[in-house]
Amino acid sequence: MKPGFAVLVGCALWLTAAHGQAQAGPEKTFADAVTALERGAVDDAIDRLESLADSGFSHPDASFNRAVAYVERARSENARPGDLGRAVAALEETLLARPGDAEAEQALERVRGEIARRRAREGAEPVVAKTSLGRAVVGLLPEAVWAGAAALGSFVASVGLALRWLSESHRRRVAASTAASIGGALLVLCGGLAFTARHFRVASRPAVVVAENARLLDQAGKPLVQKGGEPEHVSMPEGASLFVHERSGELVRIEWGTTVAWVQAAQVRPIGGTP
Prior knowledge:
By secondary structure, the chain is α+β, with helices and mostly antiparallel strands.
């Protein structure tokens, strides 16, 4: 074998082995985390699963097991503030990657129920943020459905206009005009909703409160108050769902129901990663 060819073969084998190790890395870390969770080493399991998340590895099973680990720690003597909120975030992440997962949905309901019971024992009143009208309407259907309906409206409007131009019968021209009007209305309505849905998706990111209470602030970092001096909700409860719009230093601008404010970045966790 020629020396040059031997060097090329050696390099190829080394690159193949390195690629295999890189591919095996996340899987091995996940397997080690599951093993740690099974033997009750919850902190070790959390460290490994968080390391996976920080590295960009994303899988619904990893997110679900991270939620289990946080719930187990929340129920132990080593519980830390925000453990249940982090469990909520992990379960939301699971459902985002695997919609309709019944086990994750049930677990999410139980964790939120546990948070509500703990707040009730501490004498805290339930805090419910009403969803904004825009998000409520847009959330009725997926973005792709709104876009598809807009495309259908465009098609119907185009066909109607073409038939109106080609038809000589008055009755057919009236029918074609009606179809074109309906298609146009569908295009405008569903196109607007599709655009709004895309704007929400691009401009904001779902997140969860991972602190016992996340104090609402203004951009200067001072407690938020309503006009007239009456305080709004002073804080968001652990596990509350919200949307993150932007970050400025140690603060993030969030949308919680109809409230737009700033909070400490460390108190919220965007779904799928860190702020």
